Amino acid sequence: MLEIKNLHVELEEEDKKILKGVDLTIxxxxxxxxxxxxxxxxxxxSYVLSGKSGYTVTDGSANLLGEDLLDMDPEARAAAGLFLxxxxxxxxxxxxxMTFLRTAVNAQRKARGEDELSAxxxxxxxxxxxxxxxxxxxxxxxxxxxxxxxxEKKRNEILQMAMLEPKMCILDETDSGLDVDAMKLVSxxxxxxxxxxxxxxxxxxxxxxxxxxxxxxVHIMADGRIVKTGGPELALEVENNGYAxxxxxxx
Length: 251
Known about the structure:
Layout: E1 2-11, E2 16-26, E3 31-35, H1 42-50, E4 55-64, E5 67-68, H2 74-80, E6 82-85, E7 92-96, H3 97-111, H4 119-132, H5 137-141, E8 143-144, H6 150-164, E9 168-172, H7 180-192, E10 199-203, H8 207-210, E11 217-222, E12 225-230, H9 233-241, H10 244-250
Parallel strand pairs: 3-10, 3-11, 6-9, 9-10
Antiparallel strand pairs: 1-2, 1-4, 4-5, 7-8, 11-12
């Protein structure tokens, strides 16, 4: 699904190396988690994969379903099946949630050569998916994320993911700022989307999210590269002992 080889990335304005040779392969239908201390490069990896400006790739490659991600505009990456859920979803005043969702869905369908959804088809689909995420009709009518609580913003983002049906979903610290109930709702929404043709990369500091979204593989990132890989037990080791012992082994 996603294959990253020897990825090196610098900050454009500061000429500072952030990623220093990341290697990562995520198979179709699998959930991989990346954990690591602050400043290790976790969020930078998500930004570079999604095409955020301000970063320069100096070496390496990133392919999604055999296509070169790094050679695509952000819109093309989204149409190819990549979705990034932000740590802090942005507010878009003046743009209705329903308008935003329908425009995004149909733009991606058009880019893939598929028929656009009619108003009736879209309305039926969004209502079904919103209900499963406990998003009421009032939220759908409001401007995107304006006046939403942290939990509502994250649920709204999972609704976007459910509507867009991406192949590769990247969740960048999506548990940030969520209480236990909101995290369970968001996690349930993510788990409902798990299938053999869709993969996830979950970036988090904490084991608590991985109690709800069970990963197949856990990676530890430090100093711009992945330094250790294991099963779900690796996240428990971090939760119990911190990163010091692991980093002492590998750095």
